[in-house]
Specification:
The protein has 257 residues and is an alpha+beta fold. The protein is 55% helix and 18% strand. The chain binds adenosine-5'-diphosphate. Residues 41-257 form the Histidine kinase domain.
């Protein structure tokens, strides 16, 4: 708006129209910046594992193949980075499909208990490996959610995956489902590292990470929460977060019941 004031307009120009046009330009500029940042981020995220794969294969070809111990190390490095690329491209495809608006949500009535069982079974092994206890809390009466099963499972899995990844061994992750006042709340609570207030407002942005090293080490793509937010919005809902550093975080999907 400040910039709009320096634009000289002919006397006949309707002021309101001019301001609106200017706002549109500022928004276009902002979107262009977001797009440029996104392309730069994607390129960077792709290059890191590709460099590791190229480096490892060159080392193998340069002689490391002859030594079984080294050979195993570099082949494992290649496999790990290839999986990383696979996760990243899958996340990017999921985001693109949702942002294009082309993908229709096919909603069905999902039983809360069966959703909880299915997602907890999927992350069971990861939780065990990391020494994190999984708990589930469901209301006494059955709970139904109108949603796309595939998308909802993906959103809850992303939240569970993070909760387990960012919680130390001996910690606990609780998946709780409740229904009240026309809303279904699916919350994932962890007793992990928590998120500092200065990061909290930005973690739903694509590629934003509060702790870059930790995220990379855990194989994170930085896209998980952006995907969760999209899925919530596509269902006419939202995602909330509360966190206390050192004590843990709670992410809640709030959906119209
Ligand atoms: P990533 O693949 O890095 O986990 P996400 O989009 O899923 O990407 O999350 C973005 C960032 O938010 C993470 O890098 C991490 O810093 C922070 N974060 C997400 N969930 C949690 C959690 N349960 N506890 C602590 N930090 C979290």
């Amino acid at each position: 708006f400040l910039e709009a004031q320096v634009v000289r307009l002919p006397d006949s120009a309707p002021q309101a129209g001019a301001v609106a046009v200017f706002h549109d330009l500022t928004e276009r500029k902002r979107l262009e910046e977001v797009r440029r940042d996104f392309v730069a981020n994607v390129s960077h995220e792709l290059r890191t594992p590709l460099t590791a794969i190229r480096g490892s294969s060159e080392t193998l070809l340069g002689g490391a193949l002859e030594n079984q111990h080294y050979a195993k190390h570099f082949v494992e490095m290649i496999a790990r980075n290839a999986s990383r690329l696979e996760r990243l491209t899958q996340d990017l495809l999921d985001l693109a499909a949702m942002e294009s608006g082309r993908e229709e949500l096919v909603k069905e009535a999902i039983d809360g208990a069966s959703l909880a069982d299915s997602v907890l079974a999927t992350v069971g092994e990861l939780a065990e490996e990391r020494g994190v206890e999984l708990e589930r809390e469901l209301p006494k009466e059955s709970l139904r959610i109108m949603a796309s099963r595939r998308h909802l499972e993906q959103a809850v899995l992303n939240l569970l995956d993070n909760a387990i990844k960012y919680t130390e061994s001996g910690g606990k992750v609780t998946l709780a489902l409740t229904e009240a006042e026309g809303q279904t709340r699916i919350s994932v609570k962890d007793s992990g590292a928590g998120i500092a207030p200065e990061h909290l407002g930005r973690i739903f942005e694509r590629f934003y990470r509060a702790d870059k090293d930790r995220s990379r080490q855990m194989g994170g793509t930085g896209l998980g929460l952006a995907i969760v937010k999209h899925i919530a919005q596509k269902h006419g809902g939202r995602v909330e977060v509360e966190s206390t550093p050192g004590q843990g975080s709670t992410f809640t999907l709030v959906l119209p019941a």
